[in-house]
Design brief:
176 residues; alpha/beta; Rossmann fold; 7-stranded mixed β-sheet; globular
Length: 176
């Protein structure tokens, strides 16, 4: 497959509006819309959050749930005239870390999938590097892996948007 669509990375802090903004990019889309979800509902609060996202999207989205094999799911779902929304990379990275998987190898595979996939791909990720330095090793490793992943994804996508307080700011392509 050769790349024929557009790819966008949507970054933001917790509850910044990044998922809503990413979903809005499909407004008026004619063709299939696929939501690739990486969250796991370990508790009632997360189950309610997942339900809220589903309700907001409505019934005209196909949903693929994956905790670990995101690159493979992206390859399988990507097609011409298909809008794919991946939400979110940081939950996927958490899943990889908890499964003791090689996140660098998995991110390499994701980058390959992004670069070769036809259709439109929107990826959502948390910007976790703007806060305080975490107090424990696991949290610092997660922050570092998430930051490096966001940098690597930002390099290969066509657009990068930072959402703060519900307001999107285009980072790439740079506005002259």
């Amino acid at each position: 497959m050769s790349k024929s669509g557009k790819s966008t990375l949507v970054l933001g802090g917790a509850r910044s509006g990044k998922s809503s903004y990413a979903e809005s990019l499909s407004d008026g889309w004619v063709g299939p819309r696929v939501y690739i979800a990486t969250a796991q509902a370990f508790d009632d609060e997360m189950a309610a959050r997942i339900k809220s996202h589903r309700d907001r999207r409505g019934g005209d989205w196909s949903t693929i749930e994956t905790m670990l094999d995101l690159p493979q799911k992206l390859h399988g779902a990507a097609a011409e005239n298909t809008f794919i929304l991946i939400d979110c990379l940081t939950l996927w990275l958490t899943n990889l870390m908890l499964a003791d998987m090689d996140s660098g190898k998995e991110v390499d595979a994701l980058l390959d999938a992004i670069q070769s996939a036809p259709g439109t791909i929107v990826l959502v990720s948390n910007e976790v590097g703007s806060g305080i330095v975490p107090e424990n090793d696991l949290a610092r490793r997660f922050r570092d892996i998430a930051g490096f992943t966001n940098q690597r994804v930002a390099q290969v996508v066509d657009e990068v948007v930072l959402v703060t307080a519900g307001l999107p700011m285009t980072l790439k392509p740079a506005i002259p």
